[in-house]
Amino acid sequence: MLDYCGKYSSTEPEWLRICTRKTNLKQINPRMLSGHVQGRLLSLLCSMLKPSLVLDIGTFTGYSAMCLAEGLAPGGKVISLEEDIELERSISENIGASPYTDRIEMVFSDALDWLKQHPKLQPELVYLDADKRRYPEYLEVLLPMMPPNGLLIADNTLWSGKVLKAGSTAKDEDTASIHQFNKMLAAHQGLDVFMLPLRDGLTIARKKT
Ligand SMILES: C[S@@+](CC[C@H](N)C(=O)[O-])C[C@H]1O[C@@H](n2cnc3c(N)ncnc32)[C@H](O)[C@@H]1O
């Protein structure tokens, strides 16, 4: 099904195809990469919003950062956060092969710590795709930073379907945390929320004006 969606969605640029190929060859868990279909959605949403500042939380090999960079306002930037310094070389090779080297700023740090140290940033778009166990904490930190109409896009919100059994058979911390995050979003009066059953679940939340 996803292959069909990919076939009839816009093609991904060459540098993203190369990034995917290299990630499949070199990384232990290449499935973490957002991939063609989700990447085209990120690019489309970002192009509609034309943000000046995007936060990409969880760089991995740079795929989502490059998709998001496609839709920036002139002079805009993506700040991409990654805690694993061993990914630095792959990231720099992949982003270096794209036209977005000057639009993507890399930060190697624990993302939540870094965000807490930069509360004055005003990201109009955030892609949350790291550190699933702390999703609820990210929400508390990110929402006050985001301006009205800002978009929060969170990946893995279905967590392989385990969230459906949260509290009963699925008792692990990751599932509980993602389920808690989903509940917090749905109950928030200041957000329009849409949960898209794409791949592992992609939630899109807009901060109301
Ligand atoms: C699912 S992958 C990100 C995939 C990427 N967004 C893409 O589209 O290809 C998650 C990444 O988050 C990183 N990560 C995990 N915990 C983190 C944290 N606390 N701070 C920053 N990065 C973290 C991991 O090292 C991993 O590279």
What does this structure look like?
This protein is an alpha/beta fold. The protein has eight helices and seven strands, in the order H-H-H-E-H-E-H-E-H-E-H-E-H-E-E. It has helices at 2-7, 14-26, 36-49, 63-69, 88-96, 111-117, 135-145, 173-187; strands at 53-57, 77-82, 104-108, 125-128, 151-155, 191-196, 202-207. The chain has a seven-stranded mixed sheet with strand order 3-2-1-4-5-7-6, sandwiched between helices. Helix 5 links the parallel strand 2 and strand 3 (104-108). Helix 3 packs parallel to helix 4. The longest helix is centred in the last third of the chain and has 15 residues, at 173-187. The protein is globular. The relative contact order is 0.13. The mean pLDDT is 96. S-adenosylmethionine binds at residues 32-34, 58, 60, 63-64, 81-84, 110-112, 129-131.
Strand content: 15-25%
The H-and-E topology, N to C, reads as HHHEHEHEHEHEHEE
Number of helices: 8
The amount of helix comes to 25-40%
What ligand molecules are bound, each kind once? S-adenosylmethionine
Structure summarized in a few sentences:
This protein has 209 residues and is of the alpha/beta class. It has eight helices and seven strands, in the order αααβαβαβαβαβαββ. The chain is globular, with a radius of gyration of 16 Å.
Characteristics of this structure?
7-stranded mixed beta sheet, 209 residues, alpha/beta, globular
